[in-house]
Amino acid sequence: DAKTTQPTSMDCAEGRAANLPCNHSTISGNEYVYWYRQIHSQGPQYIIHGLKNNETNEMASLIITEDRKSSTLILPHATLRDTAVYYCIAWTSAGGTSYGKLTFGQGTILTVHP
Amino acid sequence: DTEVTQTPKHLVMGMTNKKSLKCEQHMGHRAMYWYKQKAKKPPELMFVYSYEKLSINESVPSRFSPECPNSSLLNLHLHALQPEDSALYLCASSQETAVRVIQYFGAGTRLSVL
């Protein structure tokens, strides 16, 4: 799987948009970009994923550059409950199966301030 | 219901004890996973089960013994553990047949080995 690089930590004011970057310059054509987050003392939680096109769901938006070498996760109106570690993962199926081997990097610690 | 339930939430065991961690899901998922997470580190994959068969073992020591008695249940049997095995143990599940797979995680079992 492609290696991803994320900033170690970021801060955001409550109510503002949080933009979390991820670099995946070695991503291959069949690798999806997945975002998970882990709130303290909980298991990781799926946020969003995409291949080429930008994606949006009720939690966030994912912007993938045209060359697919980087992406940005956008939390449009951050709240205190969004304080967590955010993981960007480049994922593909394992050995022809449809389940995936998620390889978590160090992630970005996002702290949302009042 | 997208819940993965792990029991117990906390476990303290001695190095000569035998204990088991339990994970249960009722989403009809056919792939289940064990991850290990040390403090301030990302989760690391240990095992993957697909259709109740072990598909991936990430070179985990034999003192960790996984078992998948049925499609809803995943166990991790622990024996002769070392203090360095103290960690948060996370279980996850996903649809085997889905092309774009989302893994759903439990809250984890926090294990302390004395």
Overview of this protein structure:
The complex is a heterodimer of chains A (114) and B (114). By secondary structure, chain A is mainly β. Helices cover 0% and strands 44% of the residues of chain A. In chain A, the strands form two sheets. In chain A, strands 1-9-8-3-4 form a five-stranded mixed beta sheet, with no helix packed on it. A four-stranded antiparallel beta sheet of chain A has the order 2-7-6-5, with no helix packed on it. The mean pLDDT of chain A is 91. Chain B has 114 residues and is mostly beta strands. Helices cover 0% and strands 56% of the residues of chain B. In chain B, strands 2, 4, 5, 6, 9, 10 and 11 form a seven-stranded mixed beta sheet that branches. A four-stranded antiparallel beta sheet of chain B has the order 1-3-8-7, with no helix packed on it. Classes of the chains: A mainly beta (114), B mainly beta (114). Chains A and B meet through β4 and β8 of A and β5, β9 and β10 of B.
Poorly predicted runs of chain A are none
Number of strands of chain B: 11
How would you describe the shape of chain A? globular
Strand content of chain B: over 45%
The percent range for helix content of chain B is under 10%
Distance between the termini of chain A: 37 Å
- Report mean pLDDT of chain B, rounded to a whole number: 92
Which chain pair has the greatest contact?
A-B, 26 and 27 residues
Helical run tally of chain B: 0
User: How would you sum up the major sheet of chain B?
Assistant: 7 strands, mixed
Quick structural overview:
The complex is a heterodimer of chains A (114) and B (114). Chain A is an all-beta fold.
